[in-house]
Amino acid sequence: MPDTSSTAQKIAEYLLQIKAIKLEPKNPFTWASGWKSPIYCDNRISLSYPEIRRFLRDAMAAEINSKYPQAKAIAGVATGAIGMGMLVAEALDLPFMYVRPEAKKHGRQNQIEGHYDPAAPTVVVEDLISTGKSSLLAVDALRKAEVEVLGMVAVFSYEFDIAEKNMHQADVSLTTLCGYDTLIETAVATHYIQDEDEDVLKKWRKAPDLWTPKNI
């Protein structure tokens, strides 16, 4: 079995090192949802660093081998997980496809890109889980195409309660390599953030839809 605790800490260190995850409690970001957030995650940056992308690839491949040895295909969620999904599929020597949140409006109007076989049990690869809703659109598309979805494996999760609820309601097993709690612990230990910022970041995670910079 993979050593998940050391893997999570190493991933947190890597993501902070390359600023794939930015923590700015005093200068919050605005998400597409309108939420104000002291944290912003863009794991696609990891693809620019060979050592780090190989570590993420190998960690995810090991997790899939351990938890889903029966997997016969990998599906990446567009667009953030296309690169990582391809790397993982190559490492496992499995077919790869990617899934858009919705079908294209032109051309072949595909939502699933690449060859897929409904008889091939598939693992969905995601780079980031917030509420889980966009990730579950990919799962829904695969299921409508009669593809068996074994589960989902993601690089990082904010570990929101709503995400756990959404995954449970959709009957999707989610595994994440690194979570918010580990990230914050690592950020404090490495002095990436100040001790006083830790409380802000923890309060935000409890009610991200209500949090505003005035809470600082």
Radius of gyration computed on alpha carbons: 17 Å
In the CATH hierarchy, the third-tier topology is known as: Rossmann fold
CATH architecture: 3-Layer(aba) Sandwich
Order of helices and strands: HEEEEHEHEEEHEHEHH
Principal-axes shape call: globular
The structure class reads alpha/beta
**Low-confidence runs:** none
The structural domain count equals 1
| Main sheet characteristics | 6 strands, mixed
Top CATH class: Alpha Beta
* Cross-sheet strand order for the largest sheet: 7-6-5-8-9-10
Mean pLDDT: 92
Portion of residues within helices: 25-40%
Q: Tally the helices: what do you get?
A: 7
Model description:
- With 216 residues, this protein is α/β, with parallel strands linked by helices.
- The protein has one domain: Rossmann fold.
- It has helices at residues 4-17, 50-67, 82-92, 133-144, 161-169, 180-189, 195-206, and strands at residues 21-23, 29-30, 36-37, 39-41, 73-77, 96-99, 112-113, 122-129, 149-157, 174-179.
- It has a 6-stranded mixed sheet with strand order 7-6-5-8-9-10, sandwiched between helices. The chain has a two-stranded antiparallel sheet with strand order 1-4. It has a two-stranded antiparallel ribbon with strand order 2-3.
- Helix 3 links the parallel strand 5 (73-77) and strand 6.
- The relative contact order is 0.16.
- The mean pLDDT is 92.
